[in-house]
Amino acid sequence: MAVVKTVADRKDNLDKILVKGGNPLVGKVTVSGAKNAVLPIIAASILAGSPVQIDDVPNLTDVDTICQVIASLGVAVARDGNTVKVDPAGLDTFEAPHELVSKMRASVVVMGALLARMGKARISHPGGCAIGSRPINWHLKGLEALGAQIRINHGYLEATAASLKGARIYLDFPSVGATENIMMAASMAKGTTIIENSAQEPEIVDLANFINEMGGKVRGAGTNVIRIEGVSHLNGAVHSIIPDRIEAGSYLVAAALTGGDVTVENVIIDHLKPVLAKLRESGVEVIEADTSLRVIRRSELKGIDFKTQVHPGFPTDLQAPMMALTTMARGTSIITETVFENRFMHVEELKRMGANIRIEGRTAIVDGVARLTGAQVKATDLRAGAALLAAALSAEGVTEIENTYHIDRGYENIVEKLQGLGAQISRA
Amino acid sequence: MVSVLSNESFEETMMFKAKQEGPPAQEILAQVYTALKQKGYDPINQLVGYLLSGDPVYITSHNNARTLIRRLERYELLEELVKSYLTQLS
Q1: DSSP sequence for A192-258
Q2: A219-240 per-position pLDDT tens digit
Q3: Using beta carbons and an 8 Å cutoff, which residues of A are at the interface with B?
Q4: Residue tagged active-site, from A18, A78, A89, A129
Q5: Which CATH number fits domain A7-32+243-427: 3.40.630.30, 3.65.10.10, 3.40.190.10, 3.40.50.300?
Q6: What would the pLDDT profile of B27-36 be if each residue is shown by its tens digit?
Q7: Is the ipTM of this complex over 0.85?
């Protein structure tokens, strides 16, 4: 079954963004569905015995990729605007091909669901990662505890299990992907699975809600102990994806950096607490409403210190955009990255725009400068791209950002949304 | 340290945030319960998940239920539930 037009098709493969900086962002912007929630939920849809409908799905290249991955397994996938319909009746293959998995590391999340439905999964080993090692062994350890036999063969991960059995699993690190893979496999295992030291991110709660809507029994998601009672069969369901807290945070930062006045709509404020605390500390006014946040900057930015942590700490995905904010803040900011070991690749690009940053191990020390200037820069990964966009919007002159396919992986219609806020931005 | 407001500071425009009066816990719980039921969720599972984790994702946005539940501190909700349970026992 074919997947409708991909984001790449729609954008005619334009891979540069031009930004003329200096205009404060003003207006309202609406946040899309969360990328990090929708990918595992689309993967989990193959657990169902009947059709599934997922609403509020963002148009992103990563969503195209996960749709292609499950379509390659024989599953029917159809997309209409922000709705994805999945009919898993045709699931007849247990192998996710290399060309798709290599495009997106998160494809590995299909492994637990495949194992639960087919008793077998063969996935191209996702290998290394640009921002850190992100070991896959936490996923494998969990699946082995449920009774799967794992082999690594010719670059593929192969998991087989005649039947999965519930187990008590302690994760050495609260990995989001490992927690999701185990939740999916355990939802159809015999007996009860308890995941200790599980990830607590909101996207885990969204996945648990989805599995429960299909008739599963997942309890405790959002805490560090998740209990899953396996069921023999899951049904189709209709589910809406939660708003993207990282996209929301990126717009808040961009608004603050440009000295703007922006209302970000469709947010769950509790998911943004560490970000709001740091924005306020930097001298930005943040006004909370029920489902929206208004950011106004009336004065000079002040330097801030922060450390990335797993949820509910400061999210690593917003480290790069928040660093962009500190480049123009008065004084020195100290930023420590504790989640990934190689997530400062945006630093060299920000320096090309005039930022004063030095790296010492896992810490970046930022001395604020009075102005940034437009330059030719490269998005080295998704969130680095968002940081460069925020910096470009506040810089003097024109910035040309290359490799914007990274940005399209995680930000729906970003150029159009920023144009709506008065930004002078276009694709080239 | 005690901070003292000078006369000048009273002449400046000041903004106070009044505590929003809203419906009592019982009423909010009833509305949230109905919204969860209408959307096909198991309300007990969802409310327990919310009380344990504090994540509003457990509460549907249908009929404004997510906004309503955030008007109460979780301890107020728990207090209401424990009080009601113990009253029934005695």
Answers
A1: EEEEET----HHHHHHHHHHHHTT-EEE-BTBSEEEEE--S-----EEEPPB-HHHHHHHHHHHHHT
A2: 999 999 999 999 999 999 999 9
A3: 200, 202, 205-206, 208-209, 212-213, 219-223, 240, 242, 268-271, 290-291
A4: A129
A5: 3.65.10.10
A6: 999 999 999 9
A7: yes
